[in-house]
Amino acid sequence: VDAEGRASVYCVTLFNDDYDVGYLCATTNDHYCRQHAYGFVAVVLPRKAMEKVCAGRHFAWAKVALLEWLFKGVTAGGTADEVFASAISAETRDAIRAARWVVWLDADLMVIRHATPLTDLLDHHPQDLVLGEDMADLDWVNTGLVACRTESTFCQRLWSDVWILADHTFHQGEFWDQSALCHVLSKQGEFNPTVIGGKRTTAPTPKDPWFSWCGGKKCRE
């Protein structure tokens, strides 16, 4: 927390109200955030509201819509705006935007090492977007935990790009928002993945393996 009382990190998650695992993980993650003076909000929506937010896409796409709305105040399709404005107060959204980092947590993600602050990782990297590699050879990155620097113009436009520009096959096909993010980052020249959505691309196999579990670097920039 800075001198003005703003959290350095604000964690957000979202799930539909019949997803029992979400409540368990949210309770644990809220405890972790309180321990480190981070903000935390769990957005719990009825199924019809989730359907409105995702506009015919898999529910995993709700994170893209939420991150876009948090950064821009509107969503590309416009269908989610009313839902989010009802679920998250203007005061809470302002607090999220005032934090240095917005961190998305998948609804089935649970923090285990409560003694380790997220800032131990985030404050040592100048990047605007921090996320992990996929632990299967299906996508190059994993969107279970995504940290976005709030002042980043890159992050402010990224989630609109993912919603609008990603291949439509990922609206319902594997692996939804994760593969869509990989696709968009590839189109923008951020990296050149050899696999997206479990399918091989035309990219050449790099000499240095991408995945750390295949001998690649544990940290990439």
Can you walk me through this structure?
With 221 residues, the protein is α/β, with parallel strands linked by helices. It has a single domain (9-165), classed as Spore Coat Polysaccharide Biosynthesis Protein SpsA, Chain A (Alpha-Beta Complex), CATH 3.90.550. It contains eight helices and seven strands. The chain has helices at residues 20-35, 47-54, 62-72, 81-87, 90-98, 119-122, 153-165, 176-187, and strands at 9-16, 39-45, 101-105, 129-133, 141-149, 195-196, 199-200. The strands form two sheets. A five-stranded mixed β-sheet has the order 2-1-3-5-4, sandwiched between helices. A two-stranded antiparallel sheet has the order 6-7. Helix 3 packs across helix 7 (153-165) and helix 7 (153-165) crosses helix 8 (176-187).
- Rounded mean pLDDT score: 92
Element string (H = helix, E = strand) = EHEHHHHEHEEHHEE
**What is the count of β-strands?**
7
CATH superfamily: Spore Coat Polysaccharide Biosynthesis Protein SpsA, Chain A
The name CATH uses for the topology is Spore Coat Polysaccharide Biosynthesis Protein SpsA, Chain A
Please state the second-level CATH architecture. Answer: Alpha-Beta Complex
Q: From the helix content, strand content and strand pairing, which structural class follows?
A: alpha/beta
Approximate shape: globular
The CATH class assignment is Alpha Beta
Residue fraction in strands: 15-25%
Span between N and C termini?
Answer: 27 Å
In what order do the strands lie side by side in the largest sheet? 2-1-3-5-4
Computed Rg: 17 Å
